[in-house]
Write a structure and sequence with these properties.
Elements: E1 10-13, E2 19-25, E3 35-39, H1 49-55, E4 63-67, H2 83-96, E5 102-107, H3 109-120, E6 125-131, H4 137-150, H5 158-166, H6 172-182, H7 218-231, E7 245-250, H8 258-267, E8 271-276, H9 283-286, H10 288-302
Parallel strand pairs: 3-4, 3-5, 5-6, 6-7, 7-8
Antiparallel strand pairs: 1-2, 2-4
Helix pairs in contact: 4-5
GO molecular function: peptidase activity
InterPro entries: AB_hydrolase_1, AB_hydrolase_fold, AB_hydrolase_sf, Peptidase_S33
Family: Belongs to the peptidase S33 family.
């Protein structure tokens, strides 16, 4: 696997003038490597640091492009915060990187956008990587909230968590106060936590948003869960996704449970499901070595 070196951040302007912060790992002067674009989760909270941690190790065989989506991290806080707009931004980045086809990766909320992209632009994909996600927004949101409200590890403000998952946050402070209440649910039970040290300095955290505590943007979260999620349902379109697809999920994920990921894998014709027995919401951090090997094996077998 490649040695991950410091990579500068680029500013890429979208067609509406919005600037996105982008990093590309594994870039070479001849641009001979295939492209992989990886999306972060947690709208208005997570940043490119999360997909960088999960996919930069592939930079010896891919150009790995990660970015702060509009409304998140260091990118402009300018909407609209819709799947259509976020998908258009991906298309612009694909062209900016000079790729006709590419591998798209997305975990958690990034998986929702990746699924919508695969439905709309499947001809552009040579592969699809999905991590801990769901195919139906309403059922997914209700399940996540129910899990939070019934988890004995958590002590939450019920009204505030309802605002998070219904997209009705009052302001950025409301968002900032809500996240620490629920961090524990994203990790596996203590008896399943693996204690092996990380291979790189940029290991992702159990909750992918905690690298961005200074970047709360409640407007992005409210749009994502108040407007986008009630409309998100790709269950009937899964059969139309032709790209080889890897679906990974933690056995102990209470936010996007195994059965949701099984539904996706059952629906996509060329798919493979991998369940990580010692993981919660993020196998890339909970079982790093296995996650990297599974991902690499899939890409070498199905894509390269």
């Amino acid at each position: 696997m490649a040695e991950i070196k410091a990579t500068p951040t680029s500013t890429v302007q979208m067609d509406d003038g919005v600037n996105l912060q982008v990093k590309v790992f594994g870039e070479d002067s001849k641009s001979t490597k295939p492209l992989l674009i990886a999306l972060h989760g947690a709208p208005g909270l997570s940043t490119l640091a999360e997909p960088e941690s999960a996919f930069a190790f592939l930079s010896d065989i891919f150009r790995v492009l990660v970015f702060d989506s509009r409304g998140s991290g260091a990118s402009d806080k300018t909407g609209p915060y819709t799947h259509d707009r976020w998908i258009k931004d991906i298309e612009i980045l694909r062209k900016w990187a000079g790729a006709e086809k590419f591998v798209l990766a997305g975990g958690s909320y990034g998986g929702f956008i990746a699924l919508d992209y695969a439905v709309l632009h499947g001809d552009k994909l040579s592969g699809l990587l999905l991590r801990d996600t769901w195919a139906n927004g309403v059922v997914g949101m209700m399940t996540a909230l129910a899990s939070i409200l019934t988890d004995d590890r958590l002590h939450v403000d019920v009204a505030r968590q309802i605002r998070v998952w219904s997209g009705t946050l009052r302001d950025d402070k409301d968002y900032e106060d809500a996240i620490p209440e629920i961090i524990a649910i994203y990790a596996p039970p203590e008896e399943h936590m693996l204690k092996a040290p990380a291979k790189d300095n940029d290991e992702p955290t159990a909750f992918e948003g905690m690298d961005a505590l200074a970047a709360f943007n409640s407007a992005t979260q409210n749009a994502a869960f108040g407007v986008n999620m009630p409309r998100f349902d790709v269950r009937q379109q899964l059969k139309d996704i032709k790209a080889p697809t890897l679906v990974v999920v933690g056995r102990h994920d209470k936010i996007t449970p195994v059965e949701f990921n099984q539904e996706i894998a059952n629906g996509i014709p060329r798919s493979r499901l991998e369940i990580f027995e010692h993981s919660g919401h993020n196998p890339a951090s909970d079982e790093t070595e296995k996650y990297r090997q599974v991902t690499l094996d899939f890409l070498r077998t199905e894509v390269l």
